[in-house]
Each structure stands twice: as structure tokens, then as C-alpha cells.
Design goal:
The chain is α/β, with parallel strands linked by helices and about 375 residues long. It folds into two domains: about 190 residues, 3-Layer(aba) Sandwich (Rossmann fold); about 170 residues, Glycogen Phosphorylase B (Rossmann fold, 3-Layer(aba) Sandwich), CATH 3.40.50.2000. The chain has twelve helices and twelve strands. The strands form two sheets. Strands 2-1-3-4-5-6 form a six-stranded parallel β-sheet, sandwiched between helices. The chain has a six-stranded parallel β-sheet with strand order 9-8-7-10-11-12, sandwiched between helices. Strand 10, helix 9 and strand 11 form a beta-alpha-beta unit. The radius of gyration is 22 Å and the shape is globular. About 45% of the residues are buried.
């Protein structure tokens, strides 16, 4: 089918790397590999850092202009078979797709929509209402995590919800696994304020608790807080930290395969594609049992998840895998199998195809 794809938070060609940009690209690639035509319906960013009335009004006007523009294009040519919005939430609602789907009588669907009643404060209730409207009208809402699914179900029990587990393109990892290089710890993360910086702080503090072990940490990432992150690790002995900076996505698999253990606390992670990439490379993961991390890391099987905020427990988990060779190797093999067998692009494509075809059928038969 021909699919109008819209990521309101960040277009897939945005210059700043992020998990959202990566997943948008993965979804487009997955749909195309399944034989669908995918058109980026709009490049309008609906992201609002603050919900002031002027900002909301300005965004609504820009969205209406896009609705008018796209309507003209579809009237001259033809409307797509469906509209698919990726990651609408209170700071980045879809203000375009619902109107067009209704006007042209095509199915509307979302992926990774999220809703939480606690966000109905400080002016966000307006954008939250638009997210709720989109979820309610959607023929299907694909949910990456149980947390998102529960939030949507609590908001609208009758909403059509389907689980789509987070996934990656496993092609670079099939038949490859990390050599036994346990002392090389790996992490991938942007260097910015908030949850990312908090995770870097915990990681630095945890590593300072295990100076007696022969580890070396390779960090992939860059950002506005590069200097501040560097200061967190300044007390480490020379040669312990390898700063790799921003790395092109196609080079990351080879770097991960050369690692031993993936370490990242994961404050605020919706799920974390980097965890899946590390597991696919045969790296057991050490993270916190927090947010959406358990959706991609199985505690005791593909890695170790520690209590939220417990730096000492995080350090102990690193020590455990650095010193328990049998357990580390078992988790490494399980991690590789898990992602390559269960979290591949091909598996995601099967779910997307099935549910999108079902939504088309329902629309055609007036249900």
C-alpha cells in the first residue's frame, strides 16, 4: 500500500542524531522492505518546548497550512492508502494526519503514541487532548512498551492497541558476535542535560567504585555537554576512557562487536535502541530497572538490571560480569539470539503488515 508517514517530533533527515530519528528511519526502511510505498507526508515539526498560547496558536496555524497544502496535492493526484504517525505525544502532537484521514476517508494509525494524565498541567492539556483524539480515531495504535499501552488504555479503553516490540536492523550482526573482550566496556549516548547527563554521572561514580578491575570504557557520543561529561570522568586514571565522539551509524556495529559489556544506566529511556544494538553484537547489558529498559533487556538472561538510583548496585553488577566469565558468556550468547531471532526488522514488518492490512479491511467495510 501507499503510506503517508509523519514523525511530528523530528523528521528522519534531521541533522541531530537521536533515538527518535533512528526509529523513524527504521520504520521507513521496514515498510519499504515489506513492499510498501512510503512518502514523508510533512516535515513540519510540532515540537513545543513550552505550551504558551502564542506557541500553540502558531503551530496550529502552520499545521492547518499543511493540511491545505497536502489536500491540494491529494486532490490533484490521489490520496494514499493510509496515514501513519510516529511518536505523537504531548510535546509533539499530530495536528495534520487526523484531519486529512477524515477528509479523504483513509485509515489513520499511530506508532509509539503516549498519553499520561499527569501531563494535563501547565498548559499541556490542549496538546494532550489532540493526542487523545488521534488515538481514539486510529484504526490501530502500535505500542512499543507496556507502559505506553497501559497509558493509552487508561485514557481510552476502546482504543485499538497492538504491541510492536522495539526492534533494529539486525543485518550487520547476523553471524557475528563479540570476541571475548570483557574488559572493554561500551556505551553510546548523546551528551546533553537531563536524563543523559544523569546517566553519565551514575556511570562515572560506579566506575570509580571498581578501580581494582582492569576495565576500559569506550564512549560513543557527543553533544553540548561534552566538557561537563568529560569532567565527570576526570578523576579516572589515564588510559581508562576512550572518547570516540559522534560516530556514523554504519560504523557502530563494528565498534560494538569489538566490545565486551554494554554499560548505561538509562535514566528516562523509553526503551533504548542502543541496548538492542549492543545485545545483537553479543554484549550483555548492565542498566537500571527503570522506564522502558526492561522492554529490551531481560534481567538475568541478556543482562543485569539494577534498582533505580542505586549506584553501588550498578557498580556491583559491572564487577559481577567482569569477574564471572561463565555468566558473561552465557548472557552474551542469549543477548545475540534474542535480538536476531525476536527483535529484527523482519519480525516487525510482519506485525506492521498484518495490522495495517486489517485496518484497511475495517475501513473498507465501514468498521
Amino acid at each position: 500500500m501507499n503510506i503517508a508517514f509523519y514523525p511530528p517530533l523530528k523528521p528522519p533527515d534531521h541533522p541531530v542524531p537521536s533515538g527518535d530519528r533512528q526509529m523513524a528511519r527504521l520504520l521507513i526502511k521496514t515498510l519499504a522492505a515489506a513492499g510498501h510505498g512510503v512518502d514523508i507526508a510533512s516535515s513540519l515539526r510540532s515540537f513545543l518546548p513550552d505550551p504558551t498560547m502564542s506557541a500553540v496558536s502558531e503551530l496550529q496555524a502552520a499545521a492547518q497550512a499543511e493540511v491545505d497544502r497536502i489536500s491540494q496535492v491529494w486532490t490533484r493526484s490521489a490520496a494514499p492508502d493510509c496515514w501513519l504517525t510516529y511518536h505523537p505525544y504531548y510535546k509533539a502532537p499530530d495536528l495534520i494526519g487526523p484531519a486529512l484521514a477524515e477528509k479523504f476517508s483513509i485509515p489513520y494509525a499511530t506508532i509509539e503514541a503516549s498519553y499520561s494524565r499527569r501531563r494535563n498541567v501547565d498548559g499541556w492539556s490542549i496538546t494532550q487532548a489532540r493526542v487523545a483524539e488521534a488515538v481514539k480515531m486510529a484504526s490501530v495504535n502500535f505500542c512499543f512498551t507496556r507502559r505506553d499501552r497501559d497509558g493509552l488504555a487508561a485514557m481510552e479503553p476502546a482504543a485499538s492497541l497492538t504491541s510492536l516490540p522495539p526492534f533494529i536492523d539486525t543485518t550487520p550482526y547476523v553471524g557475528k558476535a563479540s570476541p571475548d573482550n570483557p574488559g572493554r566496556l561500551m556505551t553510546i549516548a548523546m551528551m546533553r542535560k537531563g536524563d543523559k547527563f544523569d546517566s553519565y554521572r551514575m556511570l562515572a561514580e560506579a566506575l570509580q567504585m571498581i578501580p581494582d578491575l582492569p576495565w576500559r570504557l569506550s564512549i560513543i557520543g557527543d553533544g553540548s555537554l561534552r566538557q561537563a561529561v568529560g569532567d565527570l570522568f576526570a578523576a579516572m586514571p589515564g588510559g581508562r576512557i576512550e572518547w570516540l565522539g559522534e560516530v556514523q551509524p554504519n560504523h557502530i556495529p563494528a565498534l560494538l562487536v569489538g566490545g565486551g559489556i554494554y554499560v548505561w544506566p538509562g535514566f528516562g529511556e523509553a526503551y533504548g535502541l542502543a541496548y538492542l544494538e549492543a545485545e545483537a553484537a553479543g554484549l550483555p547489558v548492565i542498566a537500571q530497572d527503570i522506564a522502558g529498559v526492561p522492554e529490551v533487556v531481560s534481567n538475568g538472561v541478556t543482562g543485569l538490571l539494577t534498582p533505580a538510583g542505586d549506584t553501588a548496585a550498578f557498580a556491583t553488577a559491572i564487577r559481577t560480569l567482569l569477574t564471572d566469565e561463565e555468566r558473561r558468556k552465557s548472557m552474551a550468547a542469549a543477548a545475540h539470539r534474542f535480538v536476531c531471532n525476536e527483535r529484527s526488522m523482519q519480525q516487525a514488518g510482519l506485525i506492521l503488515n498484518s495490522e495495517l492490512e486489517r485496518s484497511m479491511h475495517r475501513k473498507q467495510h465501514g468498521r
